[in-house]
Amino acid sequence: MFDGREPLYVQIADQIRDDVLSGALQAEEQVMSTTQYATTFRINPATAAKAFAELVDEGVLYKRRGVGMFVAPGARETLRAERRESFFTDVVDPVLAQARVLGIDVDEIVARLREHAAHDHPTPQAGTR
Amino acid sequence: MTGFGVQVRDLTVRYGPTTALDQVSFEIRPGVITGLLGRNGSGKTTFLSVAAAFRRGTSGAVLVDGEDPWENARVMGGTCLVRESGDVVADEPITENLRFLAERRPTFDRATAESLLDRLEIDPSKRPDKLSRGQRSAFGVVVGVATRAPLTLLDEVHLGMDAPARYAFYDALLADWMAHPRTIVVSSHLIDEVERLLEDVVILDHGRVLAADDAATLREQGLTVTGPADEVDAFVTSRRVVARQTLGRTAQATVIGTAPDDEARARAAGLELGAVGLQDLFVHLTDHAGDRAAAPLTPQESR
Amino acid sequence: MTAAASFAAPTTAGPGYLVGQVWPTARWLLGRSLFLALWFWGLVVVAVTAATVVVAVVGEPAISILAFARHGAIWFPFAVFITVSGAYLPVHVAAGLTRRSMALGAILAAAATAVVYGVVFSVLLVVERAVYSAAGWQWQFFDDLSAGAGPGTFVPASLVTSLVANLSGLLVGMAFQRGGGWWGTVTLPVTAGPILLVSALFAADTGPIATDTWFGGRGLSVPVAVTGGLLVAAAMAFAFDRLARGATVPVRAT
After folding, report:
1. Residue B204: which of B62, B63, B77, B41 has the closest Cα?
2. Interface contact flag, A44 B220, Cβ < 8 Å
3. How many CB pairs (< 8 A) connect A and B?
4. Which of A116, B151, B165, C80 is the most buried (most CB within 10 A)?
5. Among the listed residues C194, C202, C195, the one whose alpha carbon sits nearest the alpha carbon of residue C223
6. Tens digits of per-residue pLDDT, A60-88?
7. How far apart, in whole angstroms, are the C-alpha atoms of residue C116 and residue C80?
8. Domains and CATH numbers, chain B
9. Mind telling me how many Å the CA of B161 is from chain A's nearest CA?
10. For residue C108, what are the CA distances in angstroms to C28, C31, C81, C231?
């Protein structure tokens, strides 16, 4: 864990964001303390603190004095909105670019996506909530 | 106060014709784990020796907790420099060494020392001069951690220790520091390994300070740009490029210094940005292959 | 806060400094020198007893055999105290103690060691003389202790010579530590020479070098010799302290 080239605090912040998005961390739930992060991952607690500071700025976490860090109410929604926005630029656009290079038709991609969606969710109309 | 801070002002140390440190100035924040990084001969040991009053500087000053450490009983009593050679009583058993230290160091914690010895698998009935090199280094680590000095200086102590012992050392150091905050300086060139422990970093090179900052800020000053060669070249124009590689028509450049619109520009040009590891940054900064003297990373701050 | 409270390091002066730094240093160095003294005197007793028996078998002892240990009793602790500057200094400074406290502690240990050597040697001489007189042999100290070979001479002579020898060991070690091999060797007449000088104050013949002409062919009276010896010792202690305070702990290769 935490072996990428990104700075450690970025990786920690990403990890917490992912956990909030996936629901592994619920609103008002306490996150691990900097000390717990430090001992678990052998890192300087200041690194975890920097990640927390960033997440507090973003409104994902908030601090209860003397108690610790908690997931802010509405954090999941905020993150979702952000991720949706970047979903097309970060995920879809590169797929299209790659497809163009390989000579794959957009229709083929759409068909593929439909097929997968039908497989995962037999009633696609129930849709995207 | 959680430990001694260190201020270094225009410190020069010469050994005969050799200048080991050339007018260096930097600070070590109290209560923080600082990495002192540099290649062999960069002046790391010399600086630590002056800070611990093992030797005097030629000119300039080092202030430990606001005072000159030389023959200063209070400051020396609160400073613990552990060198790889280990300055222990070599011909007495380790148990005797622990007694020796406990009697002289008000902050020495014998229970911590004993549990660490156990964890690092060192037989306390042995004499230091009968230990293997790795075990001798590990005993130095035990002394450094258990002394709990307000200023703890560990000079390449992990040399000779095998990987499991080194990781046990990193864990023990971090855990003990969190329980008893103090100033710790770890000198090393195994940057990948110690990087996670560090909050601040000082990079020395040929007796000068190349960089002194907190580790995250330092890392963020480096950036890799990958993509079509001509786009990469356009992107890095008039920036400080410390490394450049090409594979076919794809190029990767490592630059120092970032701009706020980097991401937007990169996206527009179809370039990928990446972070630079501290190790890579260090290698780039201290690489003298091109006969070009390394330039300090942040000239205003480092001098 | 918790850590800061426990950072009570020794203060610069006063009893805290003496008790916290000087006393442990003196005790430690004395302990090590006494451990070696035990071996030294143990071997001397065994060797002298054996030699006395052999001489008694082949003939009749006429002079003190123990007296031959005199030079060993000077130069052995001298060698022990040479190691303080090289081997002990780094350990001392690394333990967060000042060179000042090392100098003071080492001087105290040197003085205490001198008392031990002086007293042990004197007691053994008295025992040997008693054995000789019981056996009806003639006991004679082979050196020409000019003021006579009674306890009144050899007790102060042993004590003061031993003190100067130990301090000389400290000084020689520190001269090599500060100045390196060349300066250490060049300064030997000043650093180790006082041993011969003080021996000559008490005796006309001090062994390796004939000193019988130094003071007009005679040793001096005991009070004068003791005073002179102590003055030399004080000068050496002062010099050692001054040199020690500026000593660098060298970078050592393993």
Report:
1. B41
2. no
3. 46
4. B151
5. C202
6. 999 988 888 999 998 889 888 888 888 88
7. 14
8. 6-217 (3.40.50.300), 221-295 (3.30.70)
9. 18
10. 11, 12, 12, 16
Residue B292 has pLDDT above 50, yes or no: no
Shared-domain flag, residues A66 and A81: no
The residue among A41, A42, A101 with the most chain B CBs within 10 A of its CB, best to mutate, is A42
pLDDT tens digits along B129-172: 999 989 999 999 999 999 999 999 999 988 889 889 998 999 99
Domain range for A92 is 76-126
| Segment C150-162 mean pLDDT | 82
Is residue A17, in this structure, part of any structural domain at all? yes
Is the pLDDT score of C14 beyond 50?
no
The C-alpha of C20 sits at a distance from chain B's nearest C-alpha, in angstroms, of 7
Q: Which of B196, B220, B274 is the closest to A5 by Cβ?
A: B274
Q: Which residues contact A38 (CB under 8 A, 6 or more apart)?
A: A44, A45, A47, A48, B174, B178
> Do C9 and B182 make contact, defined as CB atoms within 8 angstroms?
no
Closest by Cα among C35, C239, C66 to C158: C66
**What are the strands, taking DSSP E only, across C41-88?**
none
A69 and A106, same structural domain?
no
pTM of model > 0.90: no
Query: CB distance from B163 to chain A under 8 Å?
Result: no
Q: Which tens digit of pLDDT belongs to each residue from C36-95?
A: 999 999 999 999 999 999 998 888 887 888 888 888 899 999 999 999 988 999 999 999
- Looking at residue C252, its pLDDT comes to 62
Which tokens belong to B134?
Answer: 């790795």
Using alpha carbons, select from B244, B192, B200, B230 the residue that is nearest to residue B218. Answer: B200
Neighbours of chain C (3+ CB pairs under 8 A): B
Tokens at residue A70, please? 């908690």
Q: Within a domain: residue A86?
A: yes
Mean residue pLDDT of chain B comes to: 88
Q: What integer is the mean pLDDT of B104-118?
A: 94
Number of domains in chain A: 2
Q: Which residue has the higher pLDDT, C207 or C96?
A: C96
Does A3 fall in a domain? no
- Sign for the CA dihedral angle at C145, C147, C149, C152 comes to negative
The answer to whether C220 touches C156, Cβ cutoff 8 Å, is: no
Tell which of A73, A95, A112 closes a domain. Answer: A73
Residues 9-38 of A with CB under 8 A from B: 9-10, 35, 38
C107: Cα within 13 Å, side-chain hemisphere: 18
Contact C241, C103 (CB under 8 A): yes
Indicate whether A55 and A90 sit together in one domain: no
Confidence of residue C106 (pLDDT cuts 50, 70, 90): very high
Q: What per-residue confidence (pLDDT) applies to B245?
A: 85
What was the ipTM of the complex prediction?
0.87
Among A9-23, A45-59, A104-118, C205-219, the minimum mean pLDDT is found in C205-219
Q: Are residues A62 and A90 in the same domain?
A: no
> What CA–CA distances, in Å, run from B267 to B11, B194, B236, B245, B261?
45, 34, 14, 20, 10
Which residue in chain B is spatially nearest to C10 when comparing CA positions?
A: B74
CATH code of the domain containing A63: 1.10.10.10
| Region for residue C164 given its phi and psi (left: phi exceeds 0; alpha: psi -120 to 50; beta: otherwise) | alpha
**pLDDT the model gives residue C109:** 97
What b-and-e string marks burial along B201-218, b requiring 16 or more CB atoms within 10 Å of the CB? bbbbbbbbbbbbbbbbeb
